[in-house]
Task: inverse folding
């Protein structure tokens, strides 16, 4: 492929708080190509949301500081882009949808107003045209009766419908990248699948890249082309989705997979859980962030941060033991 | 919106009726003694006494008095003072123009100060100005209006006069000697200081309310959405945040508009303004029930209108209100 | 690893509240101010050497002269003595009024909030009615009819303050009532009495504590307003409002007659407001960080 759409290069994000400096991101790198759907997976506190918010410059500074790294959007570093230009990109080229559709829409304006507002910020068109475009977008995401519902307020919609409206809004200015931050977490299980399907369908139809942030590997398996796993503020593994599920290379990914309930296998054993708790990011471990919880830990893990290496084509991993063939066999 | 308005209107009528009845009950079921008021300490011949009692209708049973009272009220007749036979309408009319002027400028200044201070301190939170504003708004809560009124008189009247600070000679020409309440109040210059005193206490409170309400709203998810849409900070502040932040503020502003009467009474006394407040204070002291009741009715009606306007604007700002009132109960 | 074992100990709620309250410099300032004022109020009359209504020979003498620390008023009465009595009077009246108001508020608000239905409608409508009557008017009306004795003034102040405590307690009970653990308690078959006393009561307490502070401050203010307007305490009762009212004519020549009782009144209410602010922030951790 040609130039990547988005390239996050060795990003560091720290927060100055009253409890000290929280090192939310400690050198995260990620690349996204046009038209690709990439999953960013991790537990809460792993830094995945901060990464996403950083792309759009939505992390308030202070308390956040960016000591190191770049976020390259088609070659431009978003971290140093002035606000005026960043605003053009926000919504216009990169748009975002959030976890809780209940609270992500302004309660005092109609859905139509909120979608049209976004369209009119990014293109010089009349209110009438913007409204027609909004109806079109709502129709695209499968909202019934869009022409009437456009004048309804958010509280008149169900959670699933609100998230559809959010997706419609996010796609209304034909962005090149859609960041979806836990788009289904707050929804009913039955609605989750619908929303994911709409997300994937609309994205593929409009040729929009998606960065899907989630803690749920199941979500990733359904719609992503590629997955990056994040732990303790770093990407620990990155692979095409099928490869990752077939053979995880990093003990954390391996643990995550073992902790998914398997519907098709009858098991008498208890479901696996990863021991311990996530690192406290105001006092991150010296070595590998996962070392204190890792079953395969060696002395070196506690003292030295492993590098992200290319284990095989398109397969990146951050672990000291990937070079041991026996170890890889155990994980498979 | 129409049914909502009608419903609220009926509710306020009921509230006015109940409040006026409450006041009536207080004054007339336990009657004052209008006769001694007229005669002073002298005892009157029985014939005259009966005449006076009949004149005010006090010889009738309470319920008759009550219905008569409403009958007169519908005709716009508030009765007659026990003290000097003047009609209550005339007495109130005399005081009303001064009070209305004071209240109008007071309420307007209050809104302007509250919005300006609240908005700027929220936008520039943590700045020196914000900290001074916070100290000021917290501090002023502990100052009763009559104290701030006297203080204002001292600082802007007495002191400049005594120190010959001509740059502050706002109230020029200086009076020959300064005693409390001789600021000329016939021009707008005279009304501005009392109006500021009326405004400033609740303005501080509303400003604080607006500030914390705005800061809370700014942490809402939909504000993040608005920024993610590519809107300018100004647009997010004024279009998305302010309207939501105003919802609790409107209620507080309404409450303060009702309370502004008490503030005005104190201010009028401090500045010796011949308004309704002075009238009611004098009448209460001389137990002149019809005048107090008459004014009470005016004030209650005003309060009910304010409440109605607040409720309706509430519904205009927040679309959820109408639906909720239908859905709940 | 040892560095992970230093997870901060979880404090109990009230320990946490105390820690938060004492970490707030402004509320400490309020507390210190209040303690000082109470101390002066208690010992003042014993050390001044004057009675509050004793007419001395020196009229309007300036502070720190002729044995009067704060000077004298137009009748030659010792201002220090009168001010200390004023503190006593303000606080006594305010505390009595607050106790009664909170009692009324907890009872009516609790009833309305817990049972809802017609009880709630009745009480809420009554509050709506009451709210359109400005507080000064209530005082005027009561005092027009009953004159101004100590207990009438207390009653007038209760009538001006009861509904805000009622409304607040009602809201807070309704909020707590709908919380999940109360639902859970009800599901396990707990009795109404037990639910109110064990589950709702303790959780509705924090707002009551805050209201307590603001109610005391409000009662002090209202009492002084009534006194200033001539419908509260009257001469020679040493109410701060009475003293300030009497000082109006001397604002030009002897401003200290206004400034001394005026600043005591302001410091007194301000200290309580500051404590109330501190308590509110300390009791409601959600509001922490809101600056």
Result:
């Amino acid at each position: 492929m040609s130039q990547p759409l988005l390239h996050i290069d060795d990003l560091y994000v720290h927060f100055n708080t009253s409890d000290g400096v929280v090192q939310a991101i400690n050198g995260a790198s990620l690349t996204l190509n046009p038209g690709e759907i990439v999953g960013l997976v991790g537990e809460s506190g792993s830094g995945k949301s901060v990464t996403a918010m950083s792309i759009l410059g939505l992390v308030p500074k202070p308390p956040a500081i960016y000591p190191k790294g770049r976020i390259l959007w088609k070659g431009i570093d978003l971290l140093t882009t002035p606000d005026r230009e960043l605003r053009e990109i926000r919504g216009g080229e990169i748009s975002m949808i959030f976890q809780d559709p209940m609270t992500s829409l302004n309660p005092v304006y109609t859905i139509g107003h909120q979608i049209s507002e976004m369209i009119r910020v990014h293109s010089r068109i009349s209110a009438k045209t913007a409204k027609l475009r909004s109806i079109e977008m709502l129709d695209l995401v499968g909202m019934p009766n869009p022409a009437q519902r456009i004048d309804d307020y958010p509280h008149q919609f169900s959670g699933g419908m609100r998230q559809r409206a959010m997706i419609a809004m996010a796609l209304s200015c034909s962005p090149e990248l859609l960041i979806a931050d836990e788009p289904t977490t707050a929804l009913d299980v039955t609605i989750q699948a619908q929303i994911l399907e709409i997300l994937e369908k609309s994205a593929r139809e409009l040729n929009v890249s998606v960065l899907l942030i989630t803690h749920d590997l199941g979500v990733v398996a359904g719609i992503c082309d590629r997955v990056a796993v994040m732990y303790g503020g770093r990407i620990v593994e990155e692979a095409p989705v099928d490869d990752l599920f077939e053979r995880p290379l990093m003990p954390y990914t391996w643990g995550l997979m073992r902790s998914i309930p398997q519907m098709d296998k009858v098991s008498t054993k208890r479901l696996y859980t990863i021991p311990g708790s996530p690192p406290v990011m105001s006092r991150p471990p010296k070595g590998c962030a996962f070392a204190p919880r890792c079953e395969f830990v060696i002395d070196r893990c506690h003292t030295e941060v492993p590098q992200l290496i290319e284990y095989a084509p398109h397969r990146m991993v951050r672990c000291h033991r990937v070079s041991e063939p026996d170890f890889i066999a155990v994980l498979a | 919106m129409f049914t909502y308005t009608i419903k609220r209107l009926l509710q306020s009528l009921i509230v006015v009726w109940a409040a006026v009845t409450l006041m009536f009950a207080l004054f007339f079921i336990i009657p004052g003694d209008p006769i001694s008021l007229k005669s002073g300490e002298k005892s009157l011949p029985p014939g005259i006494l009966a005449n006076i009692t009949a004149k005010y209708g006090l010889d009738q049973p309470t319920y008759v008095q009550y219905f008569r009272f409403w009958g007169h009220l519908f005709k716009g007749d508030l009765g007659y003072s026990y003290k000097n036979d003047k009609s209550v309408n005339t007495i109130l009319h005399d005081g009303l123009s001064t009070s209305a002027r004071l209240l109008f400028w007071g309420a307007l200044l209050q809104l302007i100060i509250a919005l300006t201070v609240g908005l700027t301190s929220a936008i520039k939170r943590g700045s020196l100005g914000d900290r001074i504003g916070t100290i000021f708004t917290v501090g002023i809560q502990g100052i009763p209006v009559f104290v701030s009124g006297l203080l204002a008189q001292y600082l802007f009247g007495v002191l400049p006069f005594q120190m010959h600070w001509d740059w502050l000679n706002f109230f020029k020409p200086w009076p020959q000697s300064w005693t409390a309440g001789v600021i000329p109040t016939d021009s707008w210059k005279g009304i501005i200081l009392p109006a500021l005193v009326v405004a400033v206490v609740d303005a501080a409170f509303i400003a604080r309310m607006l500030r914390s309400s705005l800061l809370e709203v700014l942490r809402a998810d939909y504000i993040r959405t608005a920024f993610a849409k590519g809107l300018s900070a100004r647009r997010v502040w004024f279009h998305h945040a302010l309207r939501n932040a105003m919802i609790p503020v409107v209620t507080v502003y309404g409450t303060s508009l009702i309370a502004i009467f008490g503030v005005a009474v104190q201010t009028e006394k401090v500045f010796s303004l011949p308004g309704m407040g002075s009238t009611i204070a004098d009448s209460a002291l001389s137990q002149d029930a019809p005048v107090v009741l008459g004014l009470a009715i005016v004030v209650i009606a005003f309060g009910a209108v304010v409440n109605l306007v607040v409720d309706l604007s509430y519904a205009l700002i927040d679309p959820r209100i109408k639906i909720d009132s239908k859905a709940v109960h | 690893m040892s560095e992970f074992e230093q997870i901060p100990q979880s404090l109990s709620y009230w320990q946490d509240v105390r820690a938060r309250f004492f970490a707030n410099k402004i509320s400490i300032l309020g507390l210190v101010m209040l303690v000082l004022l109470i101390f002066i109020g208690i010992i003042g009359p014993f050390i001044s050497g004057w009675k509050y209504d004793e007419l001395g020979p020196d009229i309007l003498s300036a502070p720190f002269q002729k044995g009067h620390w704060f000077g004298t008023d137009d009748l030659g009465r010792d201002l220090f003595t009168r001010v200390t009595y004023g503190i006593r009077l303000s606080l006594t009246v305010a505390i009595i009024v607050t106790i009664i108001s909170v009692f009324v508020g907890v009872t009516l608000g609790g009833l309305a909030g817990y049972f809802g239905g017609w009880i709630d409608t009745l009480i809420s409508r009554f509050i709506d009615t009451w709210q359109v009557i400005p507080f000064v008017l209530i005082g005027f009306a009561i005092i027009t009819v009953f004159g101004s004795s100590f207990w009438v003034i207390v009653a007038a102040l209760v009538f001006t303050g009861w509904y805000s405590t009622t409304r607040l307690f009602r809201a807070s009970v309704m909020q707590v009532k709908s919380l999940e653990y109360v639902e859970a308690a009800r599901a396990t078959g707990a009795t109404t009495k037990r639910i109110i006393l064990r589950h709702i009561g303790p959780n509705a307490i924090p707002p009551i504590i805050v209201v307590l502070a603001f109610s005391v401050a409000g009662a002090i203010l209202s009492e002084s307003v009534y006194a200033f307007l001539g419908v509260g305490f009257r001469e020679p009762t040493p109410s701060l409002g009475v003293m300030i009212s009497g000082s109006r004519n001397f604002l030009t020549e002897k401003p200290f007659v206004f400034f001394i009782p005026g600043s005591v009144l302001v410091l007194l209410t301000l200290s309580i407001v500051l404590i109330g602010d501190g308590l509110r922030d300390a009791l409601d951790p959600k509001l922490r960080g809101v600056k």
Summary: The two ends of chain A are 30 Å apart (CA to CA). The mean pLDDT of chain A is 84.
